[in-house]
Every structure is written in C-alpha cells, then in structure tokens.
Write a sequence for this structure.
C-alpha cells in the first residue's frame, strides 16, 4: 500500500512539475508577444524601390562626365543597372536599420578603358560590402566598408 501511495505521489509531483514548466513557458511567450514591435516610420525609412539612380560620386570624388552608372532595385528585390561598361544584376534587398544585402552579381564581360573599369570596380565593390543607405537631400547615399556612393534620382 505504501508503495502505491509513493508511486501516486511521484506521479503527482511529475505532473505538477510539467504543468509548472508549461505555465512558465506560456507566460514567457505572452511576454514576447506583448512587446512593442520595432517602430517603422520616423526612425526607419523605406528604400525607394522601382526607381533608377545615377552614380554621381564614389568616395566623395565625382565620376567622369558622361559616364552612365546606374542602380535600380525593383519590387522583386532584384538590383540591376549599368556600370559604364557592363550591365549587372543581383539580388539586392534592403533590411532593417537601413542596410542593404547583395548576393553575387551577374555581370557582362566587356572590357573598357581603365578609368571606366576602375569606376565599375569601385561601384560594385561598394555595393557588395555590407553597407547602409540613406536619403539625404533627395540623393541616395550608400556607405560601406569598401567605399561610399552618392546617387541622384534619374529622370
């Protein structure tokens, strides 16, 4: 009789332990659900999708006059454009806190003058780095470990 009472008490203790753990876990989940979501609005900007931007400066230096270097991210988060020599495309998407993530670019293989190729390399290198973006006085500014870009909205 004592052993059946002991077993019953052990079973009851196990049930109470599981119920207590379940109640604690449920309370933790409710706390997570009650947290305020990260505010989007004044603190964070939306990336201007489906707009073409023309490169004006790399690392605060103007690009050569007449050189067309462009960037556009469409609604499917596909980046594309022209480097002054080659066309390019890549998965390119804005993430929280105004960062941009870029997958490996697909690029045509034309060879151009050294100065044009230097702009192409600087442009793509800056985009590939884990960069941040901002809209400043109507211009798109991209800053990263491998360089800074300033782009103006294309007409």
């Amino acid at each position: 009789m004592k052993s059946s009472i002991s077993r019953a008490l052990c079973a009851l203790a196990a049930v109470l332990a599981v119920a207590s753990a379940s109640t604690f876990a449920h309370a933790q989940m409710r706390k997570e659900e009650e947290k305020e979501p990260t505010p989007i609005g004044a603190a964070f900007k939306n990336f201007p999708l489906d707009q073409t931007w023309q490169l004006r400066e790399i690392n605060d230096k103007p690009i050569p006059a007449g050189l067309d270097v462009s960037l556009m991210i469409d609604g499917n988060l596909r980046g594309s454009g022209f480097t002054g020599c080659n066309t390019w495309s890549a998965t390119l998407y804005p993430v929280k806190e105004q960062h941009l993530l870029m997958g490996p670019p697909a690029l045509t293989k034309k060879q151009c003058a050294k100065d044009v190729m230097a702009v192409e390399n600087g442009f793509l290198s800056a985009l590939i780095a884990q960069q941040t973006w901002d809209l400043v006085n109507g211009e798109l500014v991209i800053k990263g470990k491998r360089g800074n870009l300033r782009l103006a909205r294309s007409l």
Observations:
- The chain has two helices and ten strands.
- The CA atoms of residues 84 and 116 lie 6 Å apart.
- The longest strand covers residues 87-95.
- The first helix runs from residue 2 to 34.
